[in-house]
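agent> fetching stored inputs for the magnesium ion docking request
agent> found them:
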Amino acid sequence: MSSTVTDLDTFQAAEEAGEAGPDAVAPPSADGRRARFIEVRGLVKTFTGDGAPVQAVRGLDLVVPEGTFLGVMGQSGSGKSTFLAMLGGLTHPTSGTIAVDGIDLYALSGERLADFRREYLGFVFQSFNLVPYLTALENVTLPLAVKKMPAAKKRGRALEVLERVGLADRASHLPGKLSGGEQERVAIARALVNEPPLILADEPTGALDTETTTEIMDLFAELHREGNTIVMVTHNAEIQLYFDRTIVLRDGRLDCDLPRCAPNTPL
Ligand code: ADP
Ligand code: MG
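agent> prediction call returned; pasting tokens
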């Protein structure tokens, strides 16, 4: 058994015993943060189907310290979503490795990878992906379904997070009765309810107007200030101000790592 699987075992055992969360597995550095929280090595993804193979990601290497708000930019088709999906344990790389908190994701079995996603990740997608016939509160409670926790406690936790995103008074609304910005907040609350160490967001403001985009980005900025590690894909150069580091992809490769990009690098 590899040490990475042991890490996840230890993490889960500690969780079940009601001890500290991910902190139980890898000792943090002096400032309390892991300097190599995300480690990507030689990452390649080639889609093969009926037609010619598509090389979506052609060799990425990246180290991201804990607590970073990382922006992933680049033109449409440059491999941003494919990269994020691999980071989130959703798409197996063709080659290369991704480690999060020392856990080598694709060395895990399918079941273990599902455990990893549940314990470590909060996903926010552009299209919200809310269940239309469940209320805001029920949508936020969903990720807690598999937790051994009394129903009242789950509900309390979900309400707490809805309050956190400013939506406590919309808890009983169906998604169809909420504005785009409110639906986005529900999606963010759902991503946060498990208190994941890593938040991944794929164009979370892509469907929102400018004012709502600012509101949502302010919320992400607050999460960042609280110490969350966030990786956000966007092609909106205006929200780049919120990131403390931006990488730009071009044709599946790292074009540059801001602020070291040339002044006129197209995003
Ligand atoms: P971005 O998010 O930057 O717009 P994507 O990661 O979605 O880019 O796509 C990168 C490339 O991979 C594109 O050429 C896209 O058409 C291709 N691609 C993405 N997903 C698939 C898939 N499931 N099958 C085949 N090709 C894909
Ligand atoms: Mg995309």
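agent> quick read of the result: Confidence is low (pLDDT under 50) at residues 1-7, 11-26.
agent> awaiting further instructions
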